[in-house]
């Protein structure tokens, strides 16, 4: 297994200096890649570079062997397109897209897939392909279709700002790497925040208010 992100070979063009916690997370991920089996949950706050870690873990896996393949799964087409642009800039290997009318090529070393589209097409992908889920809090005990996606593959990484539910942690066994928001604020990766009471003279308006509860 490649031991440094800086020596991946000519197929990869790494453009960004890593923040302090990112090499730390990559080192943890590398140990799991060597095992080639398991379900691993990584928890990092919004804005702390989850997307870069997802891509670099995929690159480590692809650089280790020409036989290694990766499936990157996203909750929305917008996020998929963002990753597509980044991979085009960083990686010389060809990729394919599995979403809506676009049919991914199962032999491709890199597949970008939307979560919903993958529900009906999971059978075409072999279980030894590394699978990485972005926003994996959708994989929880009440989401049977998504649990099936996780269970299909021998080696799965899940990334989320927070698991959102104990069910998500159970699907992925536990949180295997955590970068707390408090540390991200202290290291000036994320902005500071303040919690304030809900104003007594205000009530939620309309039908699209968001409330995050246990």
Class based on secondary structure composition and strand pairing:
alpha/beta
Which geometry do the CA atoms define? globular
Give the helix level as a range of percent.
25-40%
**Strand percent estimate:** 15-25%
Helical segment count: 7
Low-confidence region ranges: none
Order of helices and strands: HEHEHEEHEHEHEH
Q: Any overview of this molecule?
A:
The chain has 214 residues and is of the alpha/beta class. Helix content is 32%, strand content 16%. It has helices spanning 21-35, 50-64, 77-90, 115-118, 144-152, 166-171, 181-186, and strands at 38-43, 70-74, 96-98, 110-114, 130-134, 155-160, 175-178. Strands 3-4-2-5-6-1-7 form a seven-stranded parallel sheet. Strand 5 (130-134), helix 5 and strand 6 form a beta-alpha-beta unit. Helix 1 packs parallel to helix 2. The longest helix is centred in the first third of the chain and has 15 residues, at 21-35. The chain is globular. The termini are far apart. The mean pLDDT is 88.
Features:
alpha/beta; 16% strand; 7 helices; 32% helix
Q: In summary, what is this structure?
A:
The protein is an alpha/beta fold and 214 residues long. The protein contains seven helices and seven strands, in the order H-E-H-E-H-E-E-H-E-H-E-H-E-H.
